[in-house]
Design goal:
By secondary structure, this protein is of the alpha+beta class. It is 31% helix and 23% strand. It is built from 18 helices and 22 strands. The longest helix has 19 residues, at 309-327. It is globular, with a radius of gyration of 30 Å. InterPro entries: DNA_mismatch_repair_CS (IPR014762), DNA_mismatch_repair_MutL (IPR020667), DNA_mismatch_S5_2-like (IPR013507), HATPase_C_sf (IPR036890), MutL/Mlh/PMS (IPR002099), MutL/Mlh/Pms-like (IPR038973), MutL_C (IPR014790), MutL_C_dimsub (IPR042120).
Length: 598
């Protein structure tokens, strides 16, 4: 007797359901995507008990004929793919032909559809067995009703979460679907709370507040590139952040996705703008030719594979980085920074320091206020503040507005580390605690970062041979041309080594082997070397090393100068490594904490 046998269709469908139908929200996603593929301009969604008892999606799409109702419950039956070549340029959401039969096999399933006004049919199916098909009167479109999900599969039903959790998951799915289709009229009817009606809009930004909350209604739009290659969307300003990544929404050609490459690109883009451990909110729409992305790599189509991942990584990162740079006022590219030794910027003797270069924060008095900070001893320059430097507010940008609206009264220091100040703005008084070390670090970093000049190549004398091993050498070889283009002069030296003859000047003191290993990791991930990232990291390291440390007492005039300089920075809220600089308490916060009426 043969050990191998063909599974019955009902069992095969239930196995497929384990991949396609994870929970009620995945059912909702599949049904709504079918409606969008059918050209629906009006979609209504309803559910009860988190979708476990009832889930219904109705649309005004193209509808189906009577015979199509039967075919729709056959595995691998689809109207969206004809040949294998079609898989290379998919432009629809659903194409596998597995969703409806999988859902019908694990629920009580009703499918009602009509191609023309009044002439419709209803198919009733229970856990994979068709019970009846009967004519009904319905306007053009389709309604799918799913009841008692997993009722005959108690093991699967036990894996569902609480009704509250499933309810939240359904709202998350609705939010992504409605953001991806702003031109569709939506009506969402949950069994708790009032229905949500979303009229069609031209811009997805008008959907942010009703779907994601008022906070995310503050996101700022941006566009980078032109179709068919365009990244657009909305990002949170530097003062709006969260403790998790749950406010990142990614779409590729209208499809909501989870993608590690895109998340890594975003993470690099927001580095230095948000504090470490804080995450921005972002809604990103990537538009690209269908053949540039493979959506057929995951059963639920939640993940994609890009044909040129390195290109996509650099493209998304630069687009988002530019968006956040505009929000924080913009910083000069470090590709334009000077090749001169940076350590000279941190001479502690004011008489030995060059005149300050910062175009916004300092004018040329006796070396600037920063030169007066004595970080190695407990002695301080106690000259009057106006003889040390003259503060010049920025002519444009965020820092100008902050400074013009602010009055600063220095109150003292706590533990010779945290400066305490009263800041009066147009919004009212605030009590600030400022970490003096990271504040000074931010100021020094921006002084370095804003200098303009192109890096030079410094020859290594003698050239250095770096043993990488054959495996690493094989991975690095395709990128030798890319290394040369950014100033790393290296060539193969046998099958397992490189000889390095020159480096960009700001990397010349780095260990060549560690540098090449870092470059290799970045090249394989991004396909290019970003000197901005290297220079930014180096400047951040030097600024941290030279900044005044904690437990160093500052006289009041220098502490006040430090706070003023911080207010004039492009990014005053975080240090270059992402640590917070300022903690703020409003008068309302204090009154509330002491039980006063606000």
């Amino acid at each position: 007797m043969s050990r191998i046998r063909i599974l019955p269709d009902q069992v095969a469908n239930q196995i497929a359901a384990g991949e396609v139908v994870e929970r009620p929200s995945s059912v909702l996603k599949e049904l709504v995507e079918n409606a969008l593929d059918a050209g629906a301009r009006h979609i209504e969604v309803a559910w009860e008990e988190g979708g476990k008892r009832l889930l219904e999606v109705a649309d005004d799409g193209s509808g189906m004929a009577r015979d199509d109702l039967y075919l729709a419950l056959e595995r691998h039956a689809t109207s969206k793919v004809r040949t294998a070549e079609d898989l290379g340029h998919l432009g629809t959401f659903g194409f596998r032909g597995e969703a409806l039969p999988s859902i019908a096999s694990v629920s009580r399933f009703d499918l009602t559809s009509a191609e023309a006004e009044g002439a419709g049919h209803r198919l009733r199916c229970e856990f994979g067995v068709i019970k009846e098909v009967a004519p009904v009167s319905r306007s053009r479109g389709t309604t799918v009703t799913v009841r008692d999900l997993f009722a005959q599969l108690p093991a699967r039903r036990r894996f569902l979460k609480s009704t509250d959790t499933e309810h939240a998951q359904l709202w998350g799915a609705v939010a992504r679907l409605a953001l991806s289709a702003p031109g569709v009229h939506w009506v969402i009817r949950p069994d708790r709370g009032a229905p949500l009606v979303l009229p069609p809009v031209e811009d997805a930004g008008l959907r942010l507040a009703p779907l994601l909350g008022d906070k995310l209604g503050r996101l700022v739009p941006f566009v980078n590139g032109e179709r068919p290659w365009q990244v657009r969307g909305f990002v949170s300003p530097p003062d709006l952040s969260f403790r998790d990544r749950n406010h990142l929404y990614l779409f590729v050609n209208g499809r909501a996705v989870r993608d590690r490459l895109l998340l890594a690109a975003l993470s690099e883009a927001w580095s230095g703008t948000f504090a470490k451990g804080s995450y921005p909110a972002a809604v990103l729409f990537l538009e690209m030719p269908p053949e540039a992305v493979d959506v057929n790599v995951h059963p639920t189509k939640a993940e994609v594979r890009f044909r040129e991942p390195q290109r996509i990584f650099a493209w998304v990162r630069s687009g988002a980085e530019e968006a956040w740079a505009k929000l924080r006022g913009g910083l000069a590219s470090v590709l334009e920074l000077p090749p001169k030794p940076l350590e000279a910027e941190f001479e502690l003797d004011p008489s030995r320091r060059a005149a300050p270069q910062h175009p916004r924060l300092w004018s040329d008095h006796s070396g600037g206020a920063l030169g007066a900070y004595q970080t190695q001893t407990e002695t301080f320059d106690t000259r009057p503040l106006d003889t040390i430097y003259a503060y010049e507010p920025t002519p444009t940008g965020v820092s100008e507005n902050l400074e013009e609206r602010s009055e600063i009264r220095y109150l003292g220091a706590f533990q010779r580390t945290y400066l305490v100040a009263e800041i009066t703005t147009s919004a009212g008084p605030e009590l600030w605690l400022v970490d003096q070390h990271v504040a000074h670090e931010r100021i020094l970093f921006e002084r370095l970062f804003l200098r303009r000049h192109a890096p030079a190549i410094q020859p290594l004398m003698p050239p250095q041979v770096v043993q990488l091993g054959p495996e690493a050498m094989a991975r690095l070889s395709p990128f030798l041309g890319e290394l040369g283009a950014v100033g790393v002069e290296a060539e193969a030296f046998g099958a397992d080594a490189l000889v390095v003859r020159g480096l960009p000047d700001f990397l010349a003191d780095r260990d060549p082997q560690a540098l090449l290993e870092d470059l290799l990791a970045r090249l394989e991930r991004e396909g290019r070397v970003d000197l901005d990232v290297f220079r930014r990291d180096l400047n951040a390291e030097l600024a941290c090393r030279a900044a005044i440390k904690k437990h160093h007492a500052l006289p009041s005039d220098l502490a006040l100068g430090l706070i003023r300089d911080l207010l004039a920075c492009e990014v005053p809220n975080t240090c270059p490594h992402g640590r917070p600089i300022i903690k703020k308490l409003t008068l309302d916060d204090l009154d509330r904490s002491f039980g006063r009426r606000v």
